[in-house]
Amino acid sequence: MFIDRAVIEVRSGKGGDGMISFRREKYVAKGGPNGGNGGRGGSIYFVARQKINTLFNFRHSICIQANDGEKGGTKLQYGKYADDVYVEVPIGTVIYLEEGHKFLGDLNEEGKTLMVAKGGRGGKGNACFKSSTNRVPRIAEKGEPGERKRLILELKLLADVGLVGYPSVGKSTILSVVSSARPEIADYPFTTIIPNLGVVSTKDGRTFVMADLPGLIEGAHQGKGLGLQFLRHIERCRVIVHVVDMSNTGRDPISDYKNINNELKLYGFGLEKRSQILVASKMDEEGALDRLKAFKKKVKEEILPISSLLDEGIDELVYKCMDLVEKTPTFPLVGSEEEVELDTKVYELEEEEKDFYIRRLDAHTFEIYGDKIVKYYKMSNISTDDGMMRLITHLRRIGVDDELERMGAKDGDTVILDDFSFDYVS
Hints:
With 426 residues, the chain is of the alpha/beta class. The protein folds into three domains: 5-155, GTP1/OBG domain (Spo0b-associated Gtp-binding Protein, Chain: A); 161-332, P-loop containing nucleotide triphosphate hydrolases (Rossmann fold, 3-Layer(aba) Sandwich); 357-423, 2-Layer Sandwich (GMP Synthetase, Chain A, domain 3), CATH 3.30.300. The chain is 19% helix and 23% strand. It is built from eight helices and 18 strands. The chain has helices at residues 171-178, 227-231, 253-267, 288-298, 314-327, 371-378, 385-397, 400-406; strands at residues 5-11, 44-49, 63-65, 85-90, 93-97, 102-107, 113-117, 148-155, 161-164, 196-201, 207-212, 239-245, 275-281, 303-305, 357-362, 365-369, 414-417, 420-423. The strands form four sheets. Strands 10-11-9-12-13-14 form a six-stranded mixed sheet, with helices on both faces. Strands 3-1-8-5-6 form a five-stranded mixed sheet, with no helix packed on it. The longest helix has 15 residues, at 253-267. The protein is elongated and about 100 Å long. Mean pLDDT is 83; it is low at 185-193, 219-228 and 335-345.
């Protein structure tokens, strides 16, 4: 089964907690703190592999999860790092963050690897908090939380040449003649429901990859027919072979030609600017020559007439595709880092995230939120008095008390930070 789009969830591992421990050995006075740090949580990577050609394994919404790092031990022992998780996907897979459809990476080469979720670092043990003023620290950090993301995986075929046109215009037949591919061929519309790839070789030994894409119809860019589902596979094609049927099917070749070009333009990605070869197919049919003459009067483009049945014009089409492929550069996907020229560095000014935010939930309840403060809290071990004092001191240092006072908090009001709540005292 050919699956070219999937939505999955990934969860990297949490870092191991740091240890609170003190050295206690006979004849060793004042042993001091010796709690070790926790181990790093496992990260999640996607790797492009030639041996895979579909996203079939992700056909159901699944969750890929890495293990947490181990806790730190006594005697300054570090917790074990969790193993990273490597997920194999087909070459040509493009990964987006579901929220905001943010581009993350394009795995367009064998072995190309992308980290999609970073494992949390291990928390520090109490040995790290030893100082000249704090010889007996009863403080340790919890491990950093792992990342949790919803990702969109889209497979965009790595084809040099794409065959486009209305259903049943002869695209699959062309592919079967010029390559060893054996797509389904029949005399009814939408015979091709999945893209087919074939390697085409010229007589002088050059090769390129051709894709037979499901037939487009008017409104394909809006999702009608199979258009939106498979138009994405044209995005990488350097050359588009536009096939127009000249047989007596009752369709208007000129209208078909204009509609398909309009769909390519409306879909975007600059498809209308790609090198295009206009092919008049089924020239062996009765009356095809007359329809071609009428077509040439209204379309001022070079037209290549072919007959797959009689093998006429096929060699010329193959060589024309090969020549265009060789002189046409690859097209980067919109949003990818490849759009930026190698000798150009782009600096973006982004507003720095605040340490915390506060909102009033009701007359006597306030909530502290924000990624930075929540992360700090989750890594704080408040099971000890020293750990609790460290958290409270941090909140005061970054200005939480001042902001609560400015917002009108009174003694006894409830302040919530993630899953922890306490009473406000001025």
